[in-house]
Amino acid sequence: MNDQRLIELFLDMMSAERGAAKNTLEAYRRDLDDMSLRLSARGKTFDRTQTRDLEACLAEMAKEGLAPSTSARRLSATKRFFKFLLADGYRTDDPARPLSGPKQGRSLPKVLSEADVDALFDAAGELEGNKGVRCRVLLEVLYAGGLRVSELVSLPLNAISKQEGAIFVTGKGNKERLVPLTPPALEAIAAWLDVREDTLPKAKPGLLAKAQRYLFPSTSAREGHLTREQFARILKDLAVAAGLDPKKVSPHVLRHAFATHLLANGADLRSVQALLGHADISTTQIYTHVLEERLKTLVETAHPLARS
């Protein structure tokens, strides 16, 4: 069986059994396509390759100067792929199992200060009309709930639980979690619901049927809801209006800010893990390192002995 057919079967499994998101599937496809091309240059295919062939591909990546994080991601995709081939009987061995990825330091996430976040909210408060209402609710829900941008823009209209004062969020692996919201976020949602009908794509019946299902409908997106790219542009414009460097502001940076500010104000790590929807607490622990860095800087700049 050729490589492309095996990749398609793997992606079908990841979608059906693991609930992998569209962007995750596309990332797997890119990484496996790259590995397939490298093996093909050596006259190899996925069903006939050996460990030494995969090692040669990794060495080639290093020689090309690929970032260790990129090589590690491609190896991770390859390892998962060969586990699938072994489990489904397309191979009788796993040539990727002995491989280890390049060592890489774990970079700390970029974080906005609480003053920076306040500046974003102040700038959003200056916007007029329905777009201003939408911008404020997007910002409130993202920062109050720490959602991933894909979770935010695709929120169904029925995700809101007024009785609970929360929203139901479907995250990675189709796992659902209940995210409580702040009173300002709930007020922003109520204000948005008052004008949301006016933003629906009335002239496009087919798109209207899709858009009606979502909290944040779009008149142009094929999916029927606001896209990640559209929201990223909204946030960049807001950063400029707030006097912040737009390169340092993104939906994911606001998610980082949510987690870091919670921990800085006394929240426990397990609670933050549940709110973020992290399967493993080690993923959440990166935010404790951010706090450690901030405390270290504080001591070095503010302590009397450090100044002397």
Give an overview of the whole structure.
With 308 residues, the chain is mainly alpha-helical. The chain has 2 domains: 3-87, Tyrosine recombinase, N-terminal domain (DNA polymerase, domain 1), CATH 1.10.150; 114-300, hpI Integrase, Chain A (Orthogonal Bundle), CATH 1.10.443.10. The chain has 15 helices and 3 strands. The chain has helices at residues 3-18, 22-40, 51-63, 68-87, 114-125, 129-145, 149-153, 183-195, 205-211, 228-241, 251-264, 269-276, 281-284, 286-302, 304-307; strands spanning 160-161, 166-170, 176-180. The model has no long low-confidence stretch (mean pLDDT 83).
List the strand order in the largest sheet. Answer: 1-2-3
Structural class by secondary-structure content:
mainly alpha
Q: Quick one: overall form?
A: elongated
Gyration radius (Cα, Å) is 23 Å
CATH architecture of the largest domain: Orthogonal Bundle
Low-confidence stretches: none
Number of strands: 3
- Name the beta content range: under 5%
The span between the termini is 71 Å
Overall mean pLDDT stands at 83
CATH class designation of the largest domain: Mainly Alpha
- The CATH superfamily name of the largest domain is Intergrase catalytic core
